[in-house]
Amino acid sequence: MQATGFPFMKYPARFALLALGVTLATPLLAASVATARPNLVLIIADDLNWDDLGAYGHPNIRTPHLDRLAAGGMRFQHAYLTTNSCSPSRASILTGKYPHNTGAEQLHWPLPAGTQTFAQLLKKQGYYTAAAGKWHLGNAVRDHFDKIYEASDDGFVLPSGQAGGAPAKMIAKEPSGCEHWVQALEDRPKDQPFFLWLAALDPHREYSAGALNPPHRLEDVVVPPHLPDNPDVREDLRLYYDEIGRLDGYVGQVMAKLKSQGADENTLVLFITDNGRPFPRDKTTLYDGGIRTPWIVRWPAAIRAGQTSFSLVSAVDIAATFLELAGAQPASLPGDGRSFAGVLRDAALPYREFAFAEDHWHDYEDHARAVMTQRFKLIRNDYPDLPATPSADAGRGLSWQSMLKLHQQGKLTVAQQACFLAPRAPWELYDLQRDPGELHNRFNDPAYATVRAQLQQALEQWTRETNDFLPSKRTPDEFNRVTGEPDHRVRVRPRPSKMQMFGTNGAY
Length: 508
Known about the structure:
single chain; alpha/beta; Alkaline Phosphatase, subunit A; Arylsulfatase, C-terminal domain; eight-stranded mixed beta sheet; 13 helices; about 15% strand
């Protein structure tokens, strides 16, 4: 895998030491690969907030199996996705590229023909590969998996294989998308290493009662400050909690099956989400509620249990890591990420200085970029004239409909009005340590001038090195920003204009 370039070029001495650390970390990992290459299981939740698990400190959501997974391995505290939207996030993970380099940066764009994925390369390394649950990746890469157990998708989507020109339609959602996970384990050949892509539909909307028995209670709900605390919002969050609990049960079934097969010792299980909670100011934003992810790695043969890593990691690095652990050559999948295998040996190993994330079209037009460290985040809003309208599925939910009424009555706090603001600030800077809710924009605060300059420089460097660009034209909304219902406007795939790439000063 190719590195992103920025950290290595700017801090060669620091990353020479890092490379030495990775080299020193290699024997334990290499020994495992030499005797038996690890099986690889990637479990992807659908629309889960990073801290809505017991293992990440939530006091009331019942996630005993995920909590046990974290206790048996390594929990990452500072993990980020490359985008805030379902299918672009999954495409980025599978290819090891930032969304703007995948050709599938907008919601429901399929990966193009000729795309390379780490699943494809694992097959060439002798791995059996299977995907079970939500697919969401198009038809071009289906043969990268030996077998696919596809769950029905969810919500309003365009017909499969089409990129516009037809009205959206509603199709049914399977209860959780996890129903075939255990079957995928049962069906695998027992004489070769395996990679499983297990993708849930939980806790994606639409919600209905009965997902968990017994259900969570209204008094279990912890309402974040950017949402109003009223019965409708609490009920909406309660139903979301129940789908998290249902997902947790399926994770438990997978772990039990691995154990019964005698495969759990040398199987690396990585649990993440594709984007954040499907609520206003979470999913489809570049706040932590949109792009920060739980990141739990369990591999008893190589990872000591009960560890927490504060190293900064990015989902763009998963492909490089899995390929390294499978014994593939680092350059076999040209991409934007690099392996974090050394951190699995030493949880305190310095890794990334910066992580990056993108915002593209998701039901509604928007375009933004973010850069994060463990403590700070800088967001650049490229279309500040547009409000940060929540995703259409969230727009049809109890919380947004309640907020619309409260907004009309002037009863929302400043934090709760964020999705209604237009124009927005072109730049936002947050101190995640002092302000974990990202409620106080410090961009114009003189006390943060040095941090602001550092993050802007990092974002400019990343923009140049990854060939980021602005689309040549905006993409129309396909849903009503108030009701969340489809308006059947045709979405045409935008073509990037290289003349509109960002300059060194961040302008365009």
